[in-house]
Design a protein that fits this description.
oxidoreductase activity; mainly alpha; globular; 221 residues; Thioredoxin-like_sf; Glutaredoxin; 9 helices; two-stranded antiparallel sheet; DSBA-like_thioredoxin_dom
């Protein structure tokens, strides 16, 4: 959002519409964890998860955290690595897709991410999900009723499996396509005449601003 605001401030006469498609993702895909095995990754906090995700040491996790804090700081974000995490979150991903039915997907995720990553209010708790839903104007009664069902559960599991099998191994994995410019591709779309712009990993606002500027320049040629 920081990059988008900066872009529009610098280019007041250039309109850009961005359509977002999200694919629920888990680092362990659709692995059956009913017997307790999670691909060598422990349940716990984001910090312990980073230990397993890096080199299994405290030092490895702290190094990863320092890098994330640096990138986050450039966007005004201060991460809290003590938040409880889940390698295969279900309700948060279901409610994400549900919010999309009302055009609130991105607003919901912004509110949820702030609670989860900055305020140590885990996205694995339904109370946190409902607070985020309320913040963006979603009907919390309807959201609660939805969470009590199995609606969209199969969709989340299918996405967990398909993203891993299509080679996505780290997130965020962002593919910027521009069909009008022939720039189409990525794991879920046939390749167009030109390669899309792909970003894999956390980046600062300047990186995303440069992506928007590249699309602007290509459009104005």
């Amino acid at each position: 959002m920081t990059a988008l605001k900066t872009f529009h401030d610098r280019n007041p006469d250039f309109a850009m519409q961005i359509n977002v498609t999200r694919h629920p993702y888990s680092f362990i895909g659709d692995m059956d964890t009913s017997k307790g095995y999670q691909g060598g990754l422990r349940s716990g906090t984001w910090h312990t998860g980073l230990m397993d995700y890096t080199d299994g040491t405290e030092e490895g996790a702290l190094a990863a955290e320092a890098g994330l804090q640096q990138v986050g700081g450039e966007a005004g974000i201060r991460f809290d690595f003590g938040v409880r995490t889940d390698w295969q979150p279900m309700n948060s991903q279901r409610l994400l897709l549900w919010a999309g039915r009302f055009g609130k997907q991105e607003e919901f995720m912004t509110a949820l991410n702030k609670r989860h990553f900055e305020q140590r209010a885990s996205a694995s708790d339904d109370a946190t999900l409902l607070e985020a839903a309320a913040e963006v104007g979603l009907d919390t009664g309807a959201a609660g009723e939805f969470l009590a069902t199995d609606d969209l559960k199969d969709d989340v599991w299918a996405s967990y499996g398909s993203t891993i099998r299509k080679g996505v191994r780290a997130i965020p994995y962002l593919v910027f396509s521009a069909p009008a410019l022939g720039m189409v591709g990525g794991p879920f779309r046939p390749r167009g005449e030109r390669e899309p712009i792909t970003i894999n990993g956390s980046m600062n606002p300047q990186v995303f601003l440069s992506v928007l500027e590249r699309f602007r320049d290509a459009t104005l040629r």
